[in-house]
Design brief:
5 strands; Rossmann fold
Length: 165
Amino acid sequence: MKPKKISTKDLVLKIEKLAKGRIASQPVVSLDEFRIVKKNTDPRCLLIIEDDETMRNALQRIFDPDGFILKMAADATELAHVLDDTPIDLILLDVGLPWINGFELAQMLKEHKDLKHIPLVFVSAQGTDEDMKRAFDLGASDYIKKPFDIAKLKKTVNTLLELSE
C-alpha cells in the first residue's frame, strides 16, 4: 500500500496538533521543583577565598549540604590551584587576606574578562561604612559582616545565583 501524500502545510499542522496534545498531557512542574532538579543536575560552584581555616571549614559546612561545588583558597596565591575549567557561579571573599587584601583581589577579579560578571560577596569582620562603600565601588554584589546570620548568608547567595541565571 502506497503512503498517502500530504502537503507540507498539512504535515506541519499534523505535527503541531500531535505535539500540543502530548505537551498538554504532561504534568505541570512548579518553579521550585524545577529549581531543585536543576540544582541537583547542574550544581552551582562557589569560590570561597578566606584565610581563616576555621571560617573556611564553617563555610564549607554551611554550603556542602546544599549540593554546591566548593573551591577553597586561603589567599590570592592559591587561586591558581582552584581556577580550572569548572565555571564559578559566585565568589565569597574576605577583606583581611594576607599578601593581597580582598579589595585588591576584588579589583583584579573584576578586571578579568571571564570573572568580572560573577557575583562577588564580601564576608568580613571589617564592616565600616568606608569598607562597604569601597566594596560596592569595586563591583561587589553584597557585603556581609562577620559574625553573620547563616540563613541570611544562604539567602543572599541563592538570590544572587537566581538573579545571575
